[in-house]
Amino acid sequence: MPPSPTRHRHQTIPSPLVQTVASLCRPPPTAKPSSFYDIPQTPICLRAEQIIKEEIPDWAANHCFRTYAFGLAIANYAGLDTEQAKVQFGFDKELHFLTCALHEWGMSEEGIKQSKLSLELWGAIRAREWILEQKGSMSETTTTKPLGEWADLAAEAIARHTIEFRGFSKTVNLQTALLTLGSGQDLMGLSSAFVHADDIKFICEKWPRIGYVDGLRDLTKEEVARKPGCLFEGCWGDFDPGMYHVSCFKGLQGSLTKNSSPRL
Questions:
Q1: Is 213 exposed, middle or buried (0-12, 13-18, 19+ CB in 10 A)?
Q2: Fewest CB atoms within 10 Å of the CB: 47, 49, 67, 213?
């Protein structure tokens, strides 16, 4: 068996993550053109977009896509998407989208009702499996993508993003940082200082919130009831009821509809 390729050792991001970005003392963020937030039009990203829409409630899928967009904006603000930073930290837009798009797969019926794993862990395992499964269906022009490494990095980020939300580790890799920052922004507006107000509005209009906080509250109650000691049990009080009163999302929250309600 040939030896495994040596991975480039990328720099990590210190925790707590929001304070680390704030400490950069960058100029205020500027509004981005709408195309900045486009989903990468590659086969694997388009497949990920489609499958997550099929697997989880609409409000949760839209949260995944907003997390991607907020993560992009924060990376740009912090200078983590430059060519130099790509070498230092390993930023990759496709990997970032895959990680964010799949990060709530544990909110599927199978993840909630048919497993005793915390939804983050179930989702991390399923996302890793799915990314690796794509290797067999990739065309010759796309087989150079490091899917094995992407699968590991995505799974790591998904498994850890709720504990890193609370600053569990001293440092994290870039993709874990961006998933944590992006999802924390979408839930509690924690990184609003790093994203222009026009962009926040655009992102929430492109992927509407459609009662996200109500859906999350209902789903989390079921997760905690079914899985005593799960990861959500320890952090739920950190954002409920505060998630209902995030100023940057005022007038944008919407409400659950028949199509956006949990399919559980």
A1: buried
A2: 47
